Each structure stands twice: as C-alpha cells, then as structure tokens.
Amino acid sequence: MTARWRDAQGGTGPVTGFDPANGRGGDVPAGTTAVTLDGLPDGWTQSVSKDDPLTVTLAAPDQAQSRTYTFRAVSAADRFRESLKKAETIRDDRDATDAYDRASLDALGKAIGDAGKLDADTAGDQMLDKAADGLDQAVAGLRVVNWTFHGRTLAYDESKTWTIADPLDTLPGTDEKITGGSTSNRIEVSTTASAPDIRNTLAGVTETNQVLTASHGGESFRIPIRIVRGTEITLKDGTRFTGPENGSEWTVADTGHRLDRDNMPDTDKVELSDGSTIPVTWGTATLDPSGAAGPVWTMSGTATRTLDNGQTLTVELTASRAWDAKLSIGVEHRTADGNTTLIPGIDLEDATAADTPLDVTLPTLPYAAAGDQYAPAVTGGDDATVAMNATGLGDDGMRVFTGTVKATRTDGTVVTRRFTIRQPFDKPSRTVDAPDAALDGLLVNGRPIQGWDPDILEYTITAGEDDKVTVSPRAKAGQTVKASDTTLTAHSTVQHWTVTGPDGGNRTYTVTLVRDHRTPTADEAFKPSDPKDTGGTQEAPGPDTATLKSVGWTKDGTYHAEKGDEYLIPEGGSFAYESYLGQIVKITPGRDHGMTWKYRIGVLAPDGVTYRTRTVTVTYLTEATHRAGLTGLSVDGRDVDGFSPDRLEYTVGVANPERYVVTPSWDKQTGMSVTKHVDGADTTLTVTSADGLTSVVYRVHVEYDAGLAATGAGVTGVIMIAVAAVLAAAGTWFASRHKPHDPDGDTDAAM
Questions:
Q1: How far apart are CA 144 and CA 219, in angstroms?
Q2: 70-100, pLDDT tens digit by residue?
Q3: Which of 65, 490, 603, 675 is the most buried (most CB within 10 A)?
Q4: d(CA 232, CA 189)
C-alpha cells in the first residue's frame, strides 16, 4: 500500500516514512487536510477518524489484521531539522561502520553535507522538503550488514540472500524478529514461517524442516530450521533398521539365532539399543532336506514395536540348526589312578535308519579290571537322544547298560529303539602254586563265597548300592593272613589278602565288590549346557568361509575366545563359539572321558556349498570333580590324631607293625578314587580326582606301641569302603558288630 497527503489548496504528495507493515503512519506537510491509502487488498476498506482527519483505520475481512495509522503534520523546517538530526545521530553511532556498508554510509554523509548548507530559518519550504527527502532516503537506503536472528549472525550468500551457516535446531519464538542496524537505528524484520516438513529419517528419529523468510530494503532473508527428535534405535549389537524414505515401517533381519535339540529358539525377546526388549512370536520349525551340508531345521519369528512417533519397528528373526541323527554309545573305563579309556560300542551314522533293538557285547576285559569304574559315554546329534537305565550287573562283575534311543526322521516322525551293551570280564584262572598257602575259605557276611575253590584266587561279588558287606578269609592252621593293597571307588572295591603258608609259600586272594549304580557320582551326573553361538552378525571374510570366527566359552554372560583346539572351561562356564553371518553350524557334543568333552563342529559357508569340520576338546572344571583329598583316616579302627586333609604324612603307633589296617574316608560322590599300597610298616594312599587332573598322596608309617600291645589293641578287622550311608563311622560300626572269621581276627574287610 501507499499513502498520499492532500492540502486545502489542492496540493498532494506521497507520505514520508509510511510503513504499513509495522503500523507507522509517517509525516505529512503542515496544512494537510486528508490522507488517502491506495492499493488496498480486495475486501479491505478505510475510514477517517471524525476527531482527527490524519488518523486512518483499515478494516480487513480478518479482524485480526485490521489496523489504524496516525499521520503527523509537521512544517518543512521542523521536518528538515528532525531528518538532519536523525541522519547525524546514525552517522555518529559508534557501531555505524559495523552496521552498514561503506557505500550507503558515504551516501548518508553526502546527504548530511548537502543539508548542512541550508538554514532552516531562512530557506524555503520546497528546498527544505527536498533536503529532508534526501536525508530520509539516505537513511532508508542504508544497507544493513549486521543482521542477527535467534542469537545467530546472518551472512550474505551467493544467491544474494541473508541466511545462517547451519540450520537452527530449536524452534524460535513467534515474536522473534531479524534485527540489524546501529544503536540509534535498530531495524526489526518480521518473518513468515513455511509449513513444517516432518520426516522419519532413521528408526526412532523424526526430523522437522521449516524455513523462515522475510525481506527488507530489496534484500531477502532465509532462515532454515531442522529439529531432530529422538535417538536412532538399533538392535543391541548395532544392526540398523531400514525403511523407505519418510516411511513409517522399519525392519531389520536377525538371523544369528539357533534352535536347540528340542527345536526351541535360543531367545524369546529382542534387545534394542535403548535398553528395551520386544517379545518374539515364533512360528513352527520346518525341516529342509535339501541343504548342501544335509537337512536343516529352521524357524521364523517376528518382533514388532510401535514407537511414540508412529514408527513401527519389525525384527524378522530366523533360528536354525542342522539335522543330526548320528549316535555313538560307548563305555568309559576309568581305573582308580584316573586313567580313562573309551571302549567303542554302538556307532550309528543315522539312528533313524532302522527301528530294531540294538544288542552289543563288548570285548572281554581281564578279570582284574572288574573293580574299575564303567560308565556309558554317549555322543549324539540333536535329533538322536538317549535315556539310560540304571547300570545292571551280570556274572563275574559284568556291567550291563540298557536304555532307549529316540531319533527324529527328516519327515518329523520319531523312531524308538532299545539297546543293551554288555561289558564282560574273563573268569578267574586256577593256580597250583604254593599249596600250603591255600585258604580254607572266604566268607561273605558269614556265608561261603559263591564258587569257592581254594585254587581260584580272584572272586567278584555284587551288592546293592547301600548294602553292608563283610568279607572274611578263613585261614588254616599255621597260615598267616594279611590284608594288603586296596582300590576304592564310589561303586567298587578291590581288596587283596596275602596268605603265607607254614612252608613259606605265598598266595594273594582278591575279592572285587561291584555295587548297583543308581546314584551317579558328580562326574557322571555332570551335563554341560548346550553350545551357544555368540556371533552370527558379522559378515564373513568371503562367501566360501567355512571356518568359525572363534571358539571359546561363556560365563556370566561374557564370551571368552580361545586360540587352540584344547582348553579348560572354568566352573559355571559353557562351550560357545562365534559364527559369521550366513553360516550354518552343526555341533555334535559327546563325553570323551571323565570331565572331558569333544565337540565335532561342521560349518557350511554362506555360499551354501563349502563345508568344513573341526574337533575341539574341552575339560570342564568343577569344585567337586577337580577335588582330591581324604576326609578322615584311621588305623586299626582308631582315628588318626591330628588328621587334616592338607597334612600328607603320619606316624602312628600300633600293637603289631606287621599286622595293621589303614582305613581312608573320602567324599565318594565327587567321583574320587583311592588306591592303597601296603609295604611293611608303610602304607601309601593315592587319591585321584574325578577329572584325573588332581592327585594327592598320603603316607602312613606305623611303629610298635608297647602300651597298645599290652592292652591287646590290634587290628579290629575293618576296612570300610564305598558304603555311602555310613561314610564317617563305618569302621567302628563293623568292628563292634562282626565277629572275625580268621584265626587272628584282623583281616575281615567291611566292603
């Protein structure tokens, strides 16, 4: 809009200083009778105040935009003086040179110089008006160069627009204006905001873009605003969601999950980078029989979350495992000194190939091996499981292992097969040597031992897990019988007696007691956790990479990588590994011996063709199975004074150093074993841990004690072993309740 004045003589002209945007009316000459506004927008009307013809009110269709302008009538001389004073004040501002460019300041200086040649009291109105117009135009023409907005300095860019280097990251107040100019001539420019452009740029992140525009003195202003709300959300490992530009649906694939042998996925939730979790809805496991490395079980799942900004995050999960129905059932043979041998038994490449019972008799072992420990050793794939029954006993200490195999075919049906594995032992041989040292008999709980023959020196007897058994040698006249070496485990006892005849001949009789094996020892009961893949997210070095990133173990949620193929896993740890993204890994675990497991690892590369295998051997450490040591020690039925598990050597007084019995006590359920060797007045007890890694040797030396000899305190006939219910006081119990059956009463063995 423009404004024009009119006087009584018909004179007219433009109003000086009219600023419709900012509500300033401006100045008109003295004698002005009316002011008219031209260029009104459609629908706008104007009216003159009845009280003041120089006050004009504009009425707009939108009443909020209506406004009133008041114009001031001044004489030419007064206007000249005011214009000159304003121009000089601006020129003299200390910040003028920083506020305006040099050319417009020079133009202001020239206008001030020209005006200084006039005398306001004597010069005519026309000359004064012209000079005032020149001053006003010079002031209006000052080009501001120190524009600021919202605390930011604006710069003039190549497109001849005042703007800022970086967008604002907060929304300015609605009353904030672009400001510039010098101290006495502060200029404010209102801005117009564009409609906000709201976009989803990342999962969890919304970006709002807006532009403020304005103009002044023929120049444009552009203030960009970019406000980012939220923080990008990824999977916990940093894997990012993807989505279409400005889309509301964001997805990510999470393929690094495994199914266990029951086809249950290894997780029921997805962890996100913001600490939140999303529950997973899993589908049904399906079997693809056409995998390059064999059939593969797979299961798909989804986890969905809607964010506050309206975005929907979807995680598409895949869990898999290789179908594996391979099965091996052997027998682990462990001697009392911890040496272990695996005896192969049943070996099936595919346990589903038939449904007939399995019956295997292993090669016969020497009779002397009947007193060692025997346990089933099962190595099975995830699709072949074994349920073991309690170990049975046959003739001559034969171990009988029975159970059921269940294997899942590739069509999903289950095959059930019963199996029996027998471990027999040779029958004892006869001897004709040293007939004068042939015993009169061996009694078991007061009855003749089954199959007694004085020329057979080795016998095997069986008993229940907690049955009390006492074996008593019956000597002939002139013979001496001495209990000698002993081998002790949780479920077996091997006791030797040395018989010396009147002619000096010697025979050694051996009785092996094998007990029912219903309560497993700590090593037998130990079962490690399923192998865990801690990787599966990093890209493989190449599509044909069929080697794992690493193998190791986890404990308390932390993964520890190992360099070699043989290592120890501390108590509470589990076998683990790191695969690469896209690999399919088949793990076949199995007990090798004791606390040692072998893991056969097959890896199918991401190309679906390259396949490699590897075997890793680990030994699990637990407090119970790594421990070796006695809990007690007695000689001739009396507790040894000063016994301590850490004290390894003792000297003990006895009534007869040639006829004494040393009885150890220990925690049998740990799987420890004890061997006792007697050499005259010295007895050596070797205790070996269940894992075979720890061994402790105790030595007992006996000396003649005249006081004990005088009171007749000698061997009470007790060697207490392998009776779990009476571990502590067993020696005394049998000493007080069983009458010796040998003439000297010092060789009964409570087994």
A1: 10
A2: 998 888 899 899 999 999 999 999 999 999 9
A3: 490
A4: 37
CB proximity list for 524: less than 8 A, separation 6 or greater: 375, 671
Helix (H) or strand (E) holding 577: strand 574-578
* 8 Å CB contact between 399 and 391: yes
Residue 336 has pLDDT above 80, yes or no: no
Q: Are 76 and 132 in contact (CB under 8 A)?
A: yes
Q: Helix 125-140 to helix 76-92 angle, to the nearest 10 degrees?
A: 30
Q: φ, ψ for residue 736 (rounded to 5)?
A: -85, -15
* Residue at token pair 């040496």: 339
| Cα 475 to Cα 438: distance, rounded to the nearest angstrom | 8
What are the tokens at 167?
A: 């967008």
- Rounded CA-CA distance 6/1 in Å is 17
- For residue 474, give both structure tokens: 């019956």
Tell whether the model's pLDDT for residue 719 goes beyond 60.
no
Please answer whether residues 456 and 446 qualify as being in contact, where contact means their C-beta atoms are separated by less than 8 angstroms.
Answer: no
Long-range contacts of 282-287 (CB under 8 A, 24+ apart): 282/317, 282/319, 285/259, 287/323, 287/410, 287/411, 287/412
Say if residue 367's pLDDT is above 90.
Answer: no
Mean pLDDT of 724-730: 27
- Give the C-alpha separation, 638 to 650, whole Å: 14
Output the pTM of the full model: 0.50
Query: Looking at 76-116, which runs of residues are DSSP E strands?
Result: none
Q: Can you read off the two tokens belonging to residue 325?
A: 């129905």
Three-state SS at 392: strand
Per the prediction, the chain carries an average pLDDT of: 88
How far apart are the two ends of the chain, measured CA to CA in Å? 121
d(CA 501, CA 314): 88
What is the rounded distance in angstroms from the CA atom of residue 371 to the CA atom of residue 725? 21
Q: Sheet containing 550-555: give its strands across.
A: 532-533, 574-578, 550-555, 558-562
630: which 2 tokens? 């006695």
Return d(Cα 13, Cα 71) in angstroms, integer. 14
Query: DSSP assignment, residue 130?
Result: H
* Tens-digit pLDDT profile for residues 590-608: 888 889 999 989 888 887 7
The answer to whether 599 and 575 have CB atoms below 8 angstroms apart is yes
* Position 149, amino acid: F
Q: Name the token pair of 182.
A: 């010098």
pLDDT at 260 over 80: yes
